[in-house]
Write a structure and sequence with these properties.
The chain is of the alpha/beta class.
């Protein structure tokens, strides 16, 4: 850093370099704001003609940093011990709409912070003690059958039980003045996504929100999600957003046609992604200073090899920019913030598709809000929150883009299956009211569903006119159409039900992969009770399982459920994705399904894509529909395919490293860990088989 010799001032570029450096960055979604604590340039020094005066002579003393503490010392504090011993509270009679998770979220926060030794200084300790006392106060109130945390006119942290891993997860909710639980009036909901904070945990989240006032008291509900920490609202973080919304709408009278979404920094990245991936969920979407393109943001060298390039398209908002035509969107960036480029890139990509995204620019500011821009940004949402989405009549024109059936839906249309996974699928549809007809053109769509209320009939890609409103005996809300060799055909009721239950085990929504997708839904780790075929393979899979459990616990804030193979019940089989560890010798569930997998696996060899590998130093990592329940996944010998380095590095790095099927060569190190090399990495085709043709273009 250079001090300007003529003025004595630190230049803006100096400050920006400091804020972007690893030493100075606060980790707020890329370059954090450098906060100089009480640093003041001496005005007399600014007038000095001495060019080599020491910097310290011109700067006042910094604020004293928090005192370091020993995390282990906290466990003996009486209040903390008392809260950690709180039972599950299921026997308490809480007034509606309170629930036990509103109390359980406090001991959960304490437990995770202490187990992971996240309380390292006096400031964090003070926050821990405040949260502990707040939790004890809730227990006392609950014992009196009271729930003061649900009183209107305040912001409080509530909790819910996640279906993913049965963990307690927090969120903050502002309940507006005037809300009455007995009233039938429905209220708007504002959903806010936080930025990256490397010190964020449940304790800090609760301390930041519980009982705190807002600059302006909203006249609507305001939900601030935890998102399981710092993950840009991907994977279980994405699920958290919708689980929190669902919990709020279940407990309070929310108008689901007046839900808007916005965020800043990492929250802005989340808003771009959730906005264009789920365009029919929001009244409006706003993204402030958040990345939209992994390749540019992470400076990845192109060309990017397959399947990594395809897998990046799952979350990169830039690839879904045309969907901004389905929901009002707005972007923001400071004129001095490199992240402004993300909003402008989204604006350009949408404009090329004939859609306009307004982008506000805060003049003279870096990675923060300009007051006037923030006011205009919020006015945008207020305007659309008042009007809401129009449910009926249906939107007459739909132009929808997706690259995966993980994100299949736009209003009254849904891509049920693609011909080729992770390749561009588009739908252009228009309701012709004068003819009571829907005209549809598609690309890379194998099965399409349409809301039967749209029109009397439908024509797809110039085919013959097919029935819609009264099709399939009128027994399902949507009508299914399948592309066959001789054109599009409407499916009758039984064939439609077969599609819905995935009777033929195709890739479709919530069953499209890759491996990481299994951990966005209810799952359970299943270990073996038998004797492994190979000791080297056993050592590696045991290590990989332990790593997976530890990383999910620390970084995604939940303990992965686990059972032994002989404890697998019909209920678990029906309700959860199975993550199987071991081999057909050690794990009886693997033994039951191994013959139905797209590989060959014996004691002596693993055969994938015509290539043989030794189990002594190779392992399979894969995902397929469960042969024992075609509506759920089976994963073999893998947790998330990104790891601690990626969680620590940047939320933009949390993209899949493996597709649906991979072979990993492993070598054990002196410390007991394993070095891993990916020797085969495949995306399976739409039928969950090793692909023969790779693209729509090849088919032509």
């Amino acid at each position: 850093m250079d001090l300007n010799a003529h003025t004595g001032w630190i230049t803006f570029s100096d400050l920006w370099r400091m804020s972007c450096s690893s030493r100075w960055s606060h980790g707020l979604g890329g370059c954090g704001l450098l906060v100089l604590n009480l640093i003041c340039i001496n005005p007399l020094a600014a007038q000095s003609t001495t060019t080599n005066a020491p910097l310290l002579a011109q700067v006042t003393t910094r604020k004293t940093p928090p005192e370091p503490i020993d995390p282990a010392s906290l466990k003996s504090i009486e209040e903390i011990q008392k809260l950690r011993q709180v039972s599950e509270l299921k026997s308490l009679e809480l007034p509606r709409p309170a629930q036990p998770a509103d109390i359980q979220v406090f001991p959960k926060a304490i437990d995770w912070a202490l187990r992971h030794e996240e309380i390292r200084n006096s400031t964090q300790r003070d926050a821990l003690l405040r949260v502990t006392r707040q939790g004890l106060n809730r227990v006392t109130a609950a014992e009196k059958k009271q729930a003061p945390w649900l009183a209107p006119g305040g912001q409080h942290v509530l909790g819910y039980v996640s279906e993913v891993d049965e963990s307690i997860q927090p969120y903050s909710l502002w309940i507006p003045e005037g809300y009455q639980q007995e009233s039938t009036d429905r209220w708007p909901l504002e959903v806010v996504l936080h930025g990256r904070d490397n010190d964020l945990n449940e304790v800090k989240f609760i301390d930041q929100h519980e009982g705190k006032t807002l600059k302006q008291s909203p006249k609507h509900f305001r939900l601030e999600v935890f998102g399981r920490g710092n993950n840009a609202y991907r994977w279980a973080g994405e699920t958290d957003v919708f689980e929190a919304i669902r919990d709020v709408t279940r407990r309070f009278r929310i108008d689901d046609q007046r839900i808007n979404l916005w965020g800043f920094s990492m929250g802005g990245a989340g808003a771009w992604h959730l906005g264009v991936h789920h365009p029919d969920r929001w009244t409006s979407v706003g993204a402030g200073a958040g990345f939209a393109d992994t390749i540019v943001y992470q400076k990845l060298k192109e060309p990017i090899e397959s399947p990594r390039r395809e897998l990046l398209r799952i979350y990169d908002a830039i690839d879904y920019a045309p969907n901004a035509g389905l929901v009002p969107m707005i972007g923001y960036g400071g004129s001095e913030d490199p992240q402004l480029a993300a909003a402008q890139t989204m604006q350009k990509a949408a404009r090329e598709a004939g859609v306009e995204i307004p982008v506000l620019i805060g003049q003279g500011v870096a990675h923060k809000w300009h007051p006037e821009s923030e006011q205009e940004f919020q006015a945008f949402h207020d305007r659309y929150r008042q009007s809401g989405r129009v449910r009926f009549p249906l939107n007459s024109k739909i132009r929808f883009t997706t690259w995966t059936v993980k994100y299949p839906e736009a209003d009254w249309l849904k891509v049920i299956r693609q011909e080729f996974p992770y390749q561009l699928s588009t739908i252009d549809a228009e309701i012709k009211n004068d003819a009571d007809l829907v005209e549809v053109s598609t690309k890379n769509v194998a099965i399409l569903s349409v809301d039967r209320q749209a029109a009397e009939s439908i024509r797809i890609d110039g085919s013959e006119v097919l029935p819609l409103r009264n099709a399939a005996e009128g027994l399902l809300p949507d009508v299914y159409y399948e592309l066959r060799g001789n054109g599009w055909k409407q499916l009758e009721y039984k064939a439609s039900r077969d599609v819905e239950i995935n009777d033929m085990r195709h890739k479709h929504h919530r069953l499209q992969g890759p491996i990481d997708d299994a951990f966005t839904q209810p799952f359970v780790n299943v270990t073996g009770s038998g004797r492994a075929w190979n000791s080297g393979h056993e050592a590696y899979t045991n290590w990989s399982l332990k790593r997976s459990q530890q990383e999910f616990d620390r970084w995604l804030r939940g303990r992965p459920p686990a059972i032994v193979d002989n404890g697998l019940s019909d209920e678990i089989l029906m309700d959860k994705n199975l993550v199987l560890w071991g081999d057909p010798g050690s794990n009886t569930v693997i033994a039951r399904i191994v013959d139905q997998l797209p590989i060959e696996w014996t004691k002596d060899k693993i055969v994938v894509n015509g290539k043989e590998f030794s189990p002594q130093n190779h392992a399979i990592a894969m995902i397929v529909p469960n042969p024992l329940n075609s509506l759920k996944y089976v994963v073999i010998n893998s947790g998330h395919t990104f790891h601690e380095a990626e969680f620590k590095g940047s939320n933009a790095q949390l993209y899949p490293r493996l597709g649906d099927l991979a072979v990993i060569r492993f070598v054990q190190q002196e410390d007991g860990s394993f070095r891993e090399d990916i020797v085969e990495n495949l995306i399976l085709d739409s039928r969950w088989q090793i692909p023969q043709q790779q693209s729509v273009e090849n088919q032509k």
